[in-house]
Design a protein that fits this description.
HSP40/DNAj peptide-binding domain; about 220 residues; elongated; alpha+beta; 2 domains; disordered C terminus; four-stranded mixed sheet; single chain; 6 helices
């Protein structure tokens, strides 16, 4: 079995689109949790088994190319299935008084934090991964009834291009079924929490993020 240790390119980048259009692509389909791993074995659509052993903390992205054979025009690439993301839009608060902005922002922070949901803030939008049933998240937001904040769900694949690698890990790397860091409660509640272990949420300074950040650079654009 061949072991892949580096990323050759990405299907979504301009320089690979033409080659990909003419190539036979064997996709390795991963869920968002397996995609966070730097070492794993998985099967492609062709039922071929592939071993991946990237540098520690390397970030696989949807469309990453593990191999390209120009002779046979065959590509081995990654396809990641991401969960939806709750997007809370706070842009309407711009016309409010500072006191009102602070009040509503704190209310939203309480609603999200009380459920132990991870979140990423980009501009006037807050992104929260789908960690529980969508109906539960909708129920929580309805219960808090935060005025002037519009929310809805967006496919994770549409959110990815706007995120830095550490933000991708924050939204999609700690929300799997085996995660004991981020958990959720089915009903909104208020209580004091006591944790035996310290929870570390921010990963901005994690080593090894640079390669993924460089590959993301060409795809990152300003939020609309």
């Amino acid at each position: 079995m061949k072991i892949y240790t580096k990323i050759t390119g990405n299907l979504h980048s301009p320089e690979w689109k033409e080659k990909a259009a003419e190539a036979e692509i064997d996709f390795i389909n991963l869920d968002q949790w397996t995609a966070q791993k730097s070492r794993f074995v998985a099967r492609g659509d062709s039922d071929t088994e592939y071993a991946v052993a990237l540098r520690r903390r390397s970030q696989l992205l949807d469309g990453d190319i593990l191999e390209y054979d120009p002779g046979t025009r065959k590509i081995v690439a990654i396809r990641i299935a991401l969960s939806d993301v709750l997007v809370a839009d706070l842009s309407a608060l711009a016309r409010e008084a500072p006191e009102r902005i602070i009040q509503l922002s704190v209310e939203l922070g309480h609603a999200i934090g009380n459920q132990h949901w991870p979140a990423v803030v980009k501009g006037t939008r807050v992104f929260v991964p789908l960690t529980v049933d969508k109906k539960v998240m909708e129920s929580v937001m309805r219960t808090h009834r935060i005025e002037d904040i519009v929310y809805g769900f967006q496919p994770g694949s549409e959110v990815i291009p706007y995120l830095a690698p550490h933000e991708i890990r924050r939204l999609f790397g700690g929300t799997g079924p085996d995660s004991d860091v981020h958990h959720s409660h089915a009903q909104p509640h208020g209580h004091a929490h006591t944790h035996d272990e310290e929870h570390t949420h921010d990963e901005e300074r994690e080593s090894g993020a640079a390669p993924a950040r460089e590959r993301m650079h060409d795809r990152q654009t300003a939020m609309p």
